[in-house]
Amino acid sequence: MELPVNVFKQALRRGETQIGLWVGLADAYVAELLASVGFDCLVIDAEHSPNDPRSVLPQLQAMAAYPVHAMCVRCWGLWS
Question: For the chain, what percent of residues have pLDDT higher than 70?
Answer without folding.
Answer: 92
